[in-house]
Amino acid sequence: MYSINKSGVTKKLETWTLIIPLKDNDGNEFPKSQIDEILDNIIQTYPGFTIVSCVGYWKDQKEIYKDQNHQIIIDTLPSDIDASAAFFSKKKEELSKSLKQEKIYVTKSGSKEELLSFNEFFSELGLEIENHSNSIEENMRLAEQIVSSQDFILKRYGYETLVLQRNPINNKIIWERKICGIRVKSEFEYELPDDFILCGADQIDLLGEAIFGNKQIVIIGNYEYQKYILEKFSYRPLVEAKLDGISNDTVFLDQQGEKINTKKFIELFTMSVFCNYMALRDENYLSKDISINVGEDGAMQIAESKVNGNNLLRNPAIIKDKAIQLEIIRCIKEAIDLFENNKLETVALLQAKARSNYINNRAALRKIIKSRDK
Fold this sequence. Notes:
The chain has helices at 32-45, 81-98, 118-124, 136-148, 152-155, 204-212, 222-232, 262-282, 322-340, 346-355, 358-373; strands at residues 2-5, 8-21, 50-59, 64-76, 106-116, 160-167, 172-179, 182-189, 197-200, 217-220, 250-253, 259-261, 290-295, 298-305, 309-316. It is an alpha+beta fold.
């Protein structure tokens, strides 16, 4: 996907194009709200796209027709091609029905390459390297190490903080971590009181202490550890919700307060519940120790163990519709089954962890368990 040279890094991209007609077959404009909903659905799946207004001409045996269209251009990573093909195949079918079109045009262009500077490359990968004084040779060496590590983009999510300390002489924080066997060092200036606790986003025990303590804490690497996958890959649910007989009206809010439709709510809520389940499993509860309930006021995960004691985790939400509750239960069961059989897609799992603040929740759980042991 990446190639290294002295000028920087080139990145391969695939380009998908979707044509959305703005008028029906009788020349009547589709409601703006309907077109906006289509675009909102795409932006929920991909981090960005370009819209080009265009005119299309076609003819049958009798006359020539002229169409006003939106051309949607989306650049994706080559590793995303299967997910993108599935998304656009389904989108063609949905738009053909909702817009009553005989055909919706989707094309995929040949590969193209984007030129990145070394600093842009490191930043794109979420590596917050603030020391930009490195030579071209040093930048090339680090970039080549990264590119030569297979599946770096995915494996990097499990980095390990090696050193995190203040240097009071020059008012800088020094942060060293290991990612896929590659040692990365960052230095950045700070203006913090000495009683602030420095904590790497991967340091679960220290995070747990801070959550339940009274001291103020600065988390280093939160963007790098939790946000990268969301921004660089298309949205992928753990399990796709099925809306047989369920309305897909936009009636829910996500954790950021943005309106989402019923399907997206079911998928995101499933992520949240599943991540609590996974945190319990990672803290040594067996699958049989955990029971999950979903009702009108959200979900509960009840864990009972002679070793770790009993714990109750909650995911509050207002879910009045019984059919939605049942679909959430189905999705949770399927996600757990895939997880326990090592069949859950890696990117979907990482996105779920990032959206659900998995690390912080697990840190709090570990602190509770350890407190009982004392």
